Structures are given as C-alpha cells and as structure tokens.
Amino acid sequence: MNTLLSPYTASISELKKNPSQLLEEAGGEPVAILNHNRPTAYLVPASKYERLMELLDDMELAEVIQERRKEKEFAEEVSLDEL
Fold this sequence. Notes:
This protein has 83 residues and is an alpha+beta fold. The protein has two domains: 1-43; 46-74. It is 48% helix and 17% strand. It contains three helices and three strands. It has helices spanning 12-17, 19-25, 46-72, and strands at residues 9-11, 31-35, 38-43. The protein has a three-stranded mixed beta sheet. Strand 2 (31-35) and strand 3 form a beta hairpin.
C-alpha cells in the first residue's frame, strides 16, 4: 500500500464536485486524491505549491554554489587592474 503524505483525503468523485471546498476543509494543507483507495494525486493550495517551487530553486542554487566552491581551488587570482 502507498504511504499517504497528507492526513486529508478525497476521492476523484469528491474532487470533481467541489475542489475549492476540499481545500477549505483541509485548512490549506494538501489533500491526497484517491482512486480505488490509492493516492493518484495531491491537491495543493497555490501558496504551498509556490513555496515548494521556491525551495526547490533554492536547493538547486545551493548545489551550484557547492560546485563553484570546488572549482575555486583551480581559479587564478588576479587584481582588477590586471583585467
């Protein structure tokens, strides 16, 4: 059985009836959408989704920073006058 990542669940039929009501009842938390009692999707409020995307961007930038720090040891230091 799949692990549910939300305490709130709804069937696809319930989702079709009133998705806004599902989000309201969940109090801004994600809602696991079930099909034959298995999670098939998550209904996530826009604000949470936007925050998740920001966090992913931050993680990707952190990886770039780490890679660049490793490259720094091979860099040659020059003054602005030398440029």
